[in-house]
Design goal:
- The protein is of the alpha/beta class.
- It folds into 2 domains: 169 residues, Serine Threonine Protein Phosphatase 5, Tetratricopeptide repeat (Alpha Horseshoe); 226 residues, Rossmann fold.
- It is built from 12 helices and 13 strands.
- The strands form 4 sheets. The protein has a 6-stranded mixed sheet, sandwiched between helices.
- Helix 1 packs antiparallel against helix 2.
């Protein structure tokens, strides 16, 4: 009788454990299905339910009930991460929030849950990466520095694992970069005696400790871009590759620099009036103090000391017909406190009637960085990428974005990276020589580490 009772108790315990396991497993699997369908609110509820049945994330494999001789591991040895995935689902909900105010509050709540995981010594690369990305997104530099200083030096060797099934490929690429080795940069000085400011990639510039390229590829709600390509004007100096370059720049901003696709306005062969209409419309929908990237490739000139960009209806380098004053293009953005980062791929050997080339006019109002594809009096040149002609400057611009993979690019450091990319092409990591030399950013009311 006693043996029967012992056997019955063992059976009841096994059945009870199997039922509990079935409950948390079912909730967890439901969360994964919802996450794969991008239903982040539902996914979060399911992961919270799994955590209610089985508290605490587990880094190692979960051994399922059964005989020791036929041991089975849940999901082929995957980690059990309901708390991490609940926080991750909240984070993804925040990124999808329509209102900026809603986004900030949701991301802050997600950050609190990820901070709680770190405080329990559940220090995974993924938690560190997502938390750092949130701090970058919300502009909380104090917390960003604190988490990097505390966990950055050892995060590459962290052994805590989480279930990464729902983590996006872009984010996983950023996580992988935490362990990547980097090469030192050149310490040479370019023309003019200005020292190279490029730092070793993936090092914190203040502490010297390793850090990730923050916010890699995540979309930033207050980033906008106006990309203009004019191939077919009636003026000398047309760039046959201008329209193709505009598309390439658009694609790189979208995939590698955190610009939402619907925030990028691309114009190919527009008239002057069309350019101004689109600039006004873009400015109208941008929040105050947003970031704007402007890339123009085509024909430009300077008349009476003022810079002009050409639309397809421009008829002369000496007449304002079909030309746009650079100051008119930026005026509406200046009035909204926009931080403008402008890049011009134009032939500067084409000069106006006063003999002054494009780029001679500098802004003394607003916050703007301007970078030219070549030095005054010189022409721009093409190269080839994937069998298609492309401007050297546009090619270096897009390749630098792809190399850095960051939505927070310090403008002067980016300028140096672009400068050296043009000079060396794809042939090495330092120095180089080219018949075309771009300028470094000219800044007005912007810091050298202002980010775009």
């Amino acid at each position: 009788m006693m043996k029967y009772r012992v056997w019955s108790s063992a059976v009841l315990l096994a059945v009870s454990g199997a039922c509990v396991a079935q409950s948390w497993n079912s909730a967890y699997e439901a969360g994964l299905r919802a996450g794969r369908a991008l239903q982040w609110t539902e996914a979060r509820q399911d992961f919270k339910q799994a955590a209610a049945y089985r508290p605490e994330d587990v880094s190692g494999a979960t051994v399922l009930p059964g005989p020791p001789t036929a041991q089975r591991k849940w999901r082929d040895g995957s980690s059990y991460s309901p708390d991490f995935l609940a926080a991750y689902s909240l984070y993804r909900s925040g990124l999808a929030a329509a209102k900026t105010s809603d986004q900030a509050s949701v991301l802050t709540a997600a950050a609190g849950e990820l901070e709680a995981l770190l405080s329990k010594h559940q220090v995974s690369k993924e938690t560190f990466f997502i938390l750092s990305s949130i701090y970058t997104q919300t502009g909380d530099n104090a917390k960003l520095k604190a988490v990097q200083d505390k966990y950055g030096p050892t995060i590459a060797t962290s052994s805590w694992r989480v279930d990464t099934e729902l983590v996006s490929p872009e984010e996983l690429a950023g996580v992988a970069a935490l362990s990547a080795t980097t090469s030192s940069s050149s310490t040479s000085k370019p023309e003019g005696g200005l020292e190279n400011s490029i730092r070793i990639q993936n090092l914190n510039p203040t502490t010297g400790q390793p850090q990730l390229t923050l916010g890699a590829t995540l979309k930033i709600a207050n980033k906008f871009a106006l990309v203009i390509g004019v191939r077919n004007s009636r003026l000398p100096g047309n760039l046959d590759y201008a329209n193709d370059d505009a598309i390439r720049v658009r694609d790189a901003l979208k995939s590698s620099a955190g610009y939402p696709e619907d925030h990028i306005d691309v114009l190919t062969d527009p008239t002057a009036a069309t350019i101004l209409e689109h600039a006004k419309a873009l400015s109208a929908k941008m929040p105050e103090s947003s970031t704007l990237c402007v890339f123009y490739t085509g024909v430009a000139t300077n008349i009476g000391g003022l810079d002009y960009l050409a639309g397809t209806d421009a008829t002369s380098l000496q007449s304002e017909t079909g030309l746009i004053k650079k100051s008119d293009l930026f005026g509406d953005f200046f009035s909204k406190g926009t931080h403008i980062f402008a890049f011009f791929q134009v032939d500067r050997s084409i000069v106006g009637p006063n003999g002054i080339g494009f780029g001679s006019e500098q802004s003394y109002v607003g916050s703007i960085s301007q970078m030219q594809a070549t030095t005054p009096g010189d022409a721009v040149y093409p190269t080839y990428r994937n069998g298609k002609m492309t401007g050297l400057f546009a090619d270096a611009f897009t390749q630098t974005l792809v190399d850095l993979q960051s939505n927070k690019l310090p403008i002067l450091e980016f300028g140096w990276q672009l400068f050296y990319h043009m000079r060396r092409g794809d042939t090495g990591i330092s120095g180089g020589s080219s018949h075309q030399t771009c300028t470094l950013p000219h800044l007005n009311n912007l810091a050298t580490d202002a980010q775009f």
